User: Which sequence fits this backbone?
C-alpha cells in the first residue's frame, strides 16, 4: 500500500511550491490515519506478532527513540537516542518496548505509561519508504508525530517528522567524490502563521518555514566525526553549532 502520493518523493527545491508539497504531506497523513479501521489494525498487529524475533527496552519514544532515522537530530537538539537494553529495569513505570525482526529492523514500538496507557507505533515499509503509524486502544492517533524516511542505495535521503501543525524535513546529499562528506538541508514548516507569506522561500523574512544547513563528516563506520550546523536567515548564516564525535 502506498501511504504517500508519488509527488511526495520529489526532492524539495527552494521555491514557493515547497509549501504546496508540505501541505499535501499533511493532508496525506490525515488521510492515511483515517484509513485504519479496527480490522486493519488487528491484521497489522497479527502480522507484526509473527515477525518479532527480539525485544529490547529503553526510555525514549520521541522520533522512534533508538531507531530514529535522522542522522543529526540527536546532535543538534535535546533529543537523546535511546540505548537498547535486553532487560527491563525493576520498578520501571514509564518505558519503551522495541520489537525487531531477524534483521534488527524496528517493527513496533510500545510506549508504556505508569497509568497503563500503551501507545503502539508500527513501521510500514513500502519499497524505499518507511512510515510510522501510532495507535491507542486500536485507534490511530495523530497526537504522536508520524516519522517518514526515504532511502536510496541503503542511505537515507529524506526524513520527515509530521504533526498536526508542523513538518520538520531533512534532505541529505552524499558527496560522490568525498565519500565521508554529507550535506543536509533541514526545513521547519508551520502553516497558517499570522503575517507569513508563502511566496517567501524558507529562511526568508516572513516565510512560514525556517531553513538550516548542516555539514557532516563521517568515519569508515559511518559514525559522525564532525558536524557543523547553522540557520540560514535572509541568505546569511546565523547560530552556528559545531559537534565533534568521540575520536
Assistant:
Amino acid at each position: 500500500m502506498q501511504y504517500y502520493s508519488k509527488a511526495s518523493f520529489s526532492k524539495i527545491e527552494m521555491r514557493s511550491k515547497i509549501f504546496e508539497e508540505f501541505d499535501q504531506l499533511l493532508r496525506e497523513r490525515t488521510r492515511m490515519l483515517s484509513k485504519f479501521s479496527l480490522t486493519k489494525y488487528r491484521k497489522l498487529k497479527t502480522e507484526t506478532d509473527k515477525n518479532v524475533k527480539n525485544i529490547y527496552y529503553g526510555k525514549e519514544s520521541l522520533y522512534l527513540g533508538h531507531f530514529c532515522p535522522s542522522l543529526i537530530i540527536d546532535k543538534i537538539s535535546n533529543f537523546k537516542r535511546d540505548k537498547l537494553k535486553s532487560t527491563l529495569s525493576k520498578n520501571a513505570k514509564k518505558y519503551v518496548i522495541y520489537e525487531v525482526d531477524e534483521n534488527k529492523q524496528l517493527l513496533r514500538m510500545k510506549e508504556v505509561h505508569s497509568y497503563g496507557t500503551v501507545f503502539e507505533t508500527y513501521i510500514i515499509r513500502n519499497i524505499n519508504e518507511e512510515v510510522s503509524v501510532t495507535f491507542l486502544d486500536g485507534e490511530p492517533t495523530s497526537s504522536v508525530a508520524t516519522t517518514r524516511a526515504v532511502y536510496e542505495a541503503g542511505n537515507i535521503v529524506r526524513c520527515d517528522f509530521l504533526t498536526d501543525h508542523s513538518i520538520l524535513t531533512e534532505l541529505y546529499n552524499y558527496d560522490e567524490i568525498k565519500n565521508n562528506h554529507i550535506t543536509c538541508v533541514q526545513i521547519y514548516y508551520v502553516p497558517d502563521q499570522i503575517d507569513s507569506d508563502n511566496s517567501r522561500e524558507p529562511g526568508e523574512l516572513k516565510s512560514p518555514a525556517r531553513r538550516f544547513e548542516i555539514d557532516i563528516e563521517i568515519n569508515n563506520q559511518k559514525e559522525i566525526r564532525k558536524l557543523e550546523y547553522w540557520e540560514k536567515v535572509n541568505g546569511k548564516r546565523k547560530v552556528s553549532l559545531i559537534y565533534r564525535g568521540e575520536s
